């Protein structure tokens, strides 16, 4: 059945199963941006696309591949979920700018320029020296703008992020992070970045991943909601949404692979992990997709109007999809 509210989540990376797709349907999510790549090259990414095509066939009553904003409306009407592909790294384009369009044609709609480390395109948030967007990065951003592949700077360093906002002729996203004024994790973003996002019409998706939360797993819904209200004051309520970074049912080996890939022989524990590479427990008010509506209740409790709640929970992302996913035709 159609859900009365439009819910969109701008980032999830779960251990996908029929159970999770049912929870997504029960939670009323009409669209989710899912990670289909961390460190994979183009051919390895293709296998991940094939795996998703199999899921679309097996669970056609619940999910389908989303390519345009109209697919979100279709999903809401049909009580299904449009799945939008995204990369958390630029590895699938290797060193070949022509692969940008190839990835878009396969369904990719978001690509991070970096995942924590320096890439061919920009600097990640774990590097000591941030040299900004590279020569190749400038060309790739231009090509991403042309084809309709959204620039995502969620795991990028400060200067690189500000560079990308300035270079990109279309608004960008930070699909899953929180403001550093609330919780100073390496991945959370400065007020300068927040202001630049707002001024450029770009989007921030708020994360419920415990390492990004004040007080971690014990973060309260009231604290999270108040943080969203404070951020809206900085960058405008029209430029914010939800990007939970939900990593449900993933074994610890997956988070190790996310951080380590094939670039190191050592274990990179990552932020906030205190020597443990595993996933932390979710806060009690957001265990899985069935709790998505709790965020809406929290926003209402801190003073957002009904229209503002609807904007943050999905309408802002829908508007962004509308203006961002179509190629620029000269």
Provide keyphrases for this structure:
330 residues; alpha/beta; TIM Barrel; six-stranded parallel beta sheet; 11 helices
Task: Give an account of the 3D structure.
By secondary structure, the protein is of the alpha/beta class. The chain has a single domain, classed as Metal-dependent hydrolases (TIM Barrel). 39% of the residues lie in helices and 13% in strands. The chain contains eleven helices and nine strands. Strands 1, 2, 3, 4, 5 and 6 form a six-stranded parallel sheet that branches. α5 links the parallel β5 and β6. It is globular and about 45 Å long. It starts with 6 loop residues before the first strand and ends in a 6-residue tail after the last helix.
CATH superfamily: Metal-dependent hydrolases
Order of helices and strands: EHEHEHEHEHEHEHEHEHHH
The backbone outline, from C-alpha atoms, is globular
Assembly annotation: single chain
CATH topology: TIM Barrel
Q: Give the proportion of residues in helices.
A: 25-40%
The N- to C-terminal Cα distance equals 41 Å
Main sheet record: 6 strands, parallel
Number of helices: 11
Q: Which stretches are low in confidence, meaning pLDDT under 50 for 5 or more residues running?
A: 272-276
- Top CATH class: Alpha Beta
